[in-house]
Specification:
Layout: H1 4-24, H2 29-36, H3 41-69, H4 71-88, H5 95-105, H6 107-124, H7 128-155, H8 165-190, H9 202-217, H10 220-250, H11 255-283, H12 286-302, H13 309-337, H14 343-371, H15 376-401
Helix pairs in contact: 1-7, 1-8, 2-3, 3-4, 3-5, 3-6, 3-9, 3-10, 3-14, 4-6, 4-8, 6-7, 6-14, 7-11, 7-13, 10-11, 10-13, 10-14, 10-15, 11-13, 12-13, 12-15, 14-15
Length: 406
Amino acid sequence: MGTNTSTMAPMYLVGFFARFSYALARSPVLPLFAMYLGAGPEAIGLAVGISTVTGIFFKLPSGALSDIIGRRHTMLIGLVVFAVMPFTYMLIHDYQMLVIVRFLHGFATAVYGPVAMAVVADIAGERRGEALSWFSSVTIIGNLIGAPVGGYLLHHGGVAKDPALLDFQIVYVISGVLGVISLLIGIKYLKGKENIEKGKTLKESLKKFTSGIKEVVSDKRVLITSNMEGIQNMCMGALEAFLPIYCVKVAGLNEFQAGLLWGVQVISTIVSKPLMGRSSDKYGRVPIIAVGLLMCAVSFGSIPLVTSFYLLMGAAVVFGLGEAFVTSSSAALVADICKEKHYGTAMGTFGTIFDVGHASGPIVTGILLAGFNNNYKYAFWILSALVLLIIPVFVMTMRVKKHTVY
């Protein structure tokens, strides 16, 4: 990323600690916590997916609002949620309270996510595909560390078989400390960097706000690309919710191994994502996305066929590679299509549809598991089929549009 690296370094740290905090509170800890509280498959899926539902309603307005009032205030709101909400898990003693807290915790990524991506798109110019991939890879390291660390803390290094309430509470306290670190770095980095537009009346600001949203959501290419990744992210959401349960209850693995599998998947994404982002800048987005979708569908569908830790690891690696193929190109494709002044709105739209898929994955999978008597094959294969079906639709539609990055 050349001269932008030193400028973006503090933001990378903010993203790292924020994502580390959020990942520690999520998988594999969250679905196991929901199961500890007595939740069945549908309820586990809802607990995992409900925080992403928050993003469905608030990512688009957050991104659009940042185009008008500036990134600083918008980002700081998200970072405050990262810092405060993990401590509220200490108050949870039943499933209903868990769902409420998870919904509120979702404001962290709903507000911060599209704004951070818009900042990168603002400064990256023609190299936005590579830049967005590097930024995503650096911040996603927090996700990589969070999953195995959370699993290890629950498992106590292989000593305890069944985590107690105190074990979950310890994890969430650590999550809160990491969120506070992210907030403090963010406050220091963003000090004096406000970019609020001045001299505009409320009427003028609202007009720009609504025109930006209208322009972005009326572009079929943005909606098609966003919906494609939304469907792919149904599988990602399903893995976050039910891979830990499958590992512990079906494959006979422990919590630490479940966290490691998630970590392996993230590693493969991190390693390959910058290369794929650079390739998509050079050779085009659509072919790379199509290959990634195929890899995700096949590897996801193979998971319920195996119980070996190493075979599951292989499936996780392939899924992570497919995830890198898709995500390295999809956000950049959306940015290619949109005018620079509406990057925030574009990323908010993209994030909203992304979250619809991410949120529906755990919920739909939970319903399917309940309907098929906890048969993971049927549940996972149905989602795999949806991903396979979207490939020709996406490719042919983008060909009709004759987009320049194809």
